[in-house]
Write a structure and sequence with these properties.
One of its GO terms (cellular component) is membrane. Helix content is 46%, strand content 13%. It is an alpha/beta fold. Helix 1 packs across helix 6.
Length: 258
Amino acid sequence: MKQKGIDSFVNQRIWVIGASSGIGEACTKAFIKAGAKVALSSRRAERLDTLAQSAKPGQALVFPLDVTRQEQLDSAYRGILEAWGGLDLLLFVSGVYTPLRADNFEFNIAQKTIDANLLGPMRAVSIVMPDMLKVHSGHIAIVGSVAGYSGLPKALAYGPSKAGIINFCETLYYDLLPQGVSVHMISPGFVATEATAQNDFEMPALITADEAAQEILAGLQAGEFDIHFPKRFSGFLKFLRILPYPLYFWIIRRFVKI
């Protein structure tokens, strides 16, 4: 049994959370160009307004919000239902990243990371899922990271938050496939964004946000559950997951110069 893809984005009602920059902004531009109706959310209202101006009249809605605030997510979803009567795709891209290692670990940063990166998507999914289950249709897509595959340097909070996304998406897929609701787990490698600009190390197979958006839209159309890219990097990290720990740690120490 294969889950449904999206044949065409024309008139699809899409909610992009994290639309103001990076991958979310690139996906939003691609959806608008493809003829979708897009609701834009993030904390930066002015960036959303600017992005919405590139759409045709009635094609874009703007709902600024903080993903750690349930009431703001609830309000935005009510606004989408009032305007469009339903939602076809939730794309959750929003996330935070602060490099952390054992010698600079701060619990308050870890807590904020988990709240935004793991509980944020859970809040959004809890809001849209009941209506999708009623109509046995819809798509839930969450951007995680290859950092969730296994432990990597400088990801002492970010990595666990993305590992949680992988488990969450796997379980969602199992539960929702028989109900006709599609789940898409998106695991990018290094993408040139404001977040990765913080990194002070060489990022292998670095791609642009526009390239990431192309991968995501293609995966959504094909109905893929596991959307990961660039394959030459994400495939290598998938391989590392199956190695015995002594070999895994040896490879990481040898090839990750951090």
